[in-house]
Amino acid sequence: MESGQLYGSSELLAGKIAEHHPAEYITSKIAEGAIKFGRALVRGTAGDQAKTPAAGTDKFVGVAGQSTEATDFDTEAYADKDPLACVETGIVMVYVEEGVSESDPVRIRHTADSPKVPGSFCKTADAGKTSLLTGVEFKGSRADAGLVPLLVKGIFTTTADAA
User: Fold this and answer.
1) Which pLDDT value is given to residue 10?
2) 6 touches 29 (CB < 8 A)
3) Which pTM does this prediction carry?
4) How far, in Å, CA of 51 to CA of 38, rounded?
5) Within 13 Å, how many C-alpha atoms sit on residue 71's CB side?
6) Which pLDDT belongs to residue 72?
7) Architecture of domain 17-160
């Protein structure tokens, strides 16, 4: 097992904690709609709910962590009304829709643009379809779409990319 690697040689999947963080903080919320592991979460209708982003005005609250308690575990997703793990502080594997590096800005997609889906992370502004986040940063890089570790630090701001 390599230094800093939590799961030996197993592949890090979406929503898995990539490495321990001294201030790691995971809360329990209720899924409002179906939510894939490793996707962005925003405030739901009620205070104890979280959902996939659907508008530029949605406020980021964390990342959907992986859980064996998810109804749709085999498809790496929470079903509507499932209890879900919300990573508010920590280093978690997230899905990016394009290549990213550690110095890139972090954005979330709130409006689909086939094949790009809401809840995915990205670096490039897509007017009226993405929002810029603060309180998070990429902790890895890749040349194309896939999984990268994201440091979720808390005290978030979400700013819609103007249409």
Assistant:
1) 64
2) no
3) 0.91
4) 13
5) 11
6) 86
7) Beta Barrel (2.40)
Domain boundaries, the chain: 17-160
Place of tokens 């502004």: 125
Which residue bears the tokens 């879900």?
A: 84
Intervals of the chain under pLDDT 70: 1-10
Report the pLDDT value the prediction gives residue 1, as an integer from 0 to 100.
37
24 vs 79: CA distance, rounded Å: 25
Query: Half-sphere exposure (CA, 13 Å, Cβ side) for 36?
Result: 17
pLDDT confidence of residue 3 = 44
Residue 28 CA to residue 81 CA, distance in Å, equals 12
The 10s digit of each residue's pLDDT in 52-63 is 999 999 999 999
Beta bridge partners of 86: 27, 64
Nearest Cα residue to 29 out of 62, 75, 53, 73: 62
Tell me which H or E stretch contains 134. strand 130-138
